[in-house]
Every structure is written in C-alpha cells, then in structure tokens.
C-alpha cells in the first residue's frame, strides 16, 4: 500500500522524523539525520521489518560503521542471523581485510576481521542508513566479495537520489525505504 504521492507508509514515517542539518559535516552538505527515526519505536520497528524483508534468506547481515550497525543488528535479530560490523580503519585488532575508497568529502578505509568469521560462500546483505554517492557501500561490497562472500543486495533506510549512488553501485541491486 502506498501513501500520498506514491510514498509507502514506512517512507512517510521516515520523512516525518528525519532531521535536516545544514552545512554538516562541512559547508554545502545538507545532512539527513535519521537519529529521530531510530529513537521512535514505531519507526524503528517499521524500518526493521522492511529491511528484514529485503535481507530475508541471507546467512549474515553486514552493517556499515556506525549508524548501519543499529539497523543491521535489529534486522539480524529479526531474521535470526548473525551481524557483521564493517568498521572504519583502526577500530579492529589485526589481522583485517581493508578497502580504501573515496567519499563525497574525503577518503576512508573500511575493515572486517580476517580471522574468526568464515565468509567464503556465505550470502551477506549490506545494510546502511543513507546511500549518497555509493562509495561506502561499493567498498563494503568489494571487501566482502574479496573475503569470499556472495553479496546479492544492499539495503538502506534513505537514498539521496541526486548524488548518483544507485548508478555507482550497478549492477548491485539497492533497496531503499525512502528517497530524498
């Protein structure tokens, strides 16, 4: 069922609770703060259910540092799977698998443990809060694939459509619950 203007009820709920912050983290960036969405029990339940539908059948759910952890953990709990935290550089003990990538406002490195988690042959769905230019999710997908995982899709709470992230991730299917 869709709401006014073709938006789904979960998209409308996300839009109603999203806080917009001008010039953060630097001038010219219009930051979409989903913290109020995650703090609202009804919205968090709706987001979790919708993302769990996308990730159904996955062996593992991977959340990207740091807001993606919140949603991925909830989805993994709902699905009865494990959760893998894809961390920013320097947060995990060695050895790690690492992937460097460019952001819309700099560069960064993502890491996952190289030991202790068997990824070869496992199906892993990536979950994050916002899809902007696609660089972070693309790096996460490359990182997981190099570790031997099969990554059939990524899912996000919000997609910033004007930044071309979906196109940058093609052919990886991307599911977004809302668009701005």
Automatic annotation (TrEMBL):
Class of this enzyme: transferase
Glycosyltransferase as UniProt keyword: yes
Gene Ontology molecular function: adenine binding; adenine phosphoribosyltransferase activity; AMP binding
Pfam families xref list: Pribosyltran
EC number, UniProt record: 2.4.2.7
GO cellular component term, pick one: cytoplasm
Subunit structure: Homodimer.
Entry protein name: Adenine phosphoribosyltransferase
Source species of the chain: Mycobacterium heidelbergense
Gene symbol of the encoding locus: apt
């Amino acid at each position: 069922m869709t709401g006014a203007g073709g938006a789904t009820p979960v998209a409308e709920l996300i839009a109603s609770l999203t806080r917009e912050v001008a010039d953060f983290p630097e001038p010219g960036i219009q930051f979409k703060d989903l913290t109020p969405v995650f703090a609202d029990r009804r919205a968090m339940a709706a987001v979790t259910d919708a993302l769990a539908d996308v990730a159904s059948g996955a062996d593992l759910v991977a959340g990207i540092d740091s807001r993606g952890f919140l949603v991925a953990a909830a989805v993994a709990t709902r699905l009865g799977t494990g959760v893998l935290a894809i961390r920013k550089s320097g947060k995990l003990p060695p050895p790690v698998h690492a992937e460097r990538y460019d952001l819309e406002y700099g560069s960064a490195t993502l890491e996952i443990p190289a030991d202790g988690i068997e990824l070869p042959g496992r199906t892993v769905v990536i979950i994050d809060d916002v899809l902007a230019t696609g660089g972070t999710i693309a790096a996460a997908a490359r990182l997981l694939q190099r570790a031997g995982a099969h990554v059939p899709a990524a899912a996000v709470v919000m997609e910033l459509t004007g930044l071309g992230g979906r196109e940058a991730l093609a052919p990886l299917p991307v599911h977004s619950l809302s668009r701005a």
